[in-house]
Design brief:
mainly beta; Methylamine Dehydrogenase, Chain H; Lipocalin; 3 domains; four-stranded antiparallel β-sheet; 1 helix; about 5% helix; globular
Length: about 400
Amino acid sequence: MAWEADMKVLLALLLAAALAGCSTTKNVIGDVGGWFGLSGGSAKTKPAELAEIKPVAKLTRLWDVNVGAGKPYAFSPASDGQAVYAASADGRVVKLDLATGKEVWRAEAKQSLSAGVGVGSGVVLVGTPKGQVLAFRTDNGQLDWTATLSGEILTAPVAAGGLVAARGNDGRIWLFDAADGKQRWVYSRVLPALISRLQGDLLLTSRALFAGHPGGKLTALSLANGAPLWEANVALPKGVTELERIADVAGALAADDHLVCAGAYQGRLGCFDQTTGNPVWMRDFSSPGGVAMGPRFLFAADEHSIIQGYDKLRGASLWKQESLLDREVLTPVVFSKYVAVADYQGIVHLLSLEEGALVGRAGTDGSAVIGHMQALGDDGLLVQTVNGGVYAFKIQ
């Protein structure tokens, strides 16, 4: 296809530049928002025009605020059920009232940020290009502790059960105490010669820390010492060139009480037994943004913004939605009876959970949404745009 040919040319140019200007053995290509065609409509293939739909569900905007631009990084808002937290690339971290969006406190990191936010165990977490994890207290915004990793942080640190997990872009994953930032352990792995800049999220549960990796691997790490409990292949790198062999597990992971599910770019999509790592089902599917899980189904968007639903337990295809072709859709989110996705123009689209039909949409500030959206309860949705707009929506 023409799109694929254009992307291969672009990647070749990026690789040449990386090799010319980098003396290290590992090369990272593509900026967030610019590699998988996520450049605000600059991909050479023309995004699909939006057809008129008959709204079945209405997304009503409850409030919106601007917290500062995120470029060139992907920032996502978060909520602990009591408030909303967000951050910007210039170092701003804010706590917002859940009902009104009114600012409760504002903290200044006094340095650039590259990832955020994560929230849990009483702390709000952000990361920096220099590899620092900054933990602010949720109650008053005071800087509680810092920890230094050995690589740039591109995905939000996560917190749960009194623990904080974070990863750098050098293949290392770290676990800390949420109370004081004391290091528990660090896990390290060898990276492929060429990796994408889009990293896989961490998923911290009471059972293990799940992580996707460049090269198509998914691991479950012991909370006690960081040792791998198991490792599974989400994708097997294929092709002759290093570009063709990129098969990174990127974006969001999803889990329930028994399964953990993941997707890989230029690879596959699938679910695995949390205890053994054995694959329950696998499907060929190239996913740059990861997966979202509902009670019965799993959802993902491919690099052409084709959204698909699968039966979570068996992997049977549920539906395919192609109306948003090449609109640079990334990670879906499941809430109420719907699946929500957002595109390069900041438009939020609602799809029916069981049929995949487009049933509603709402606009933001016109800039792309490349961070993760978050469900707010049973009928709310939280969105952050590249230009720094944070929006709370409710289905009515």
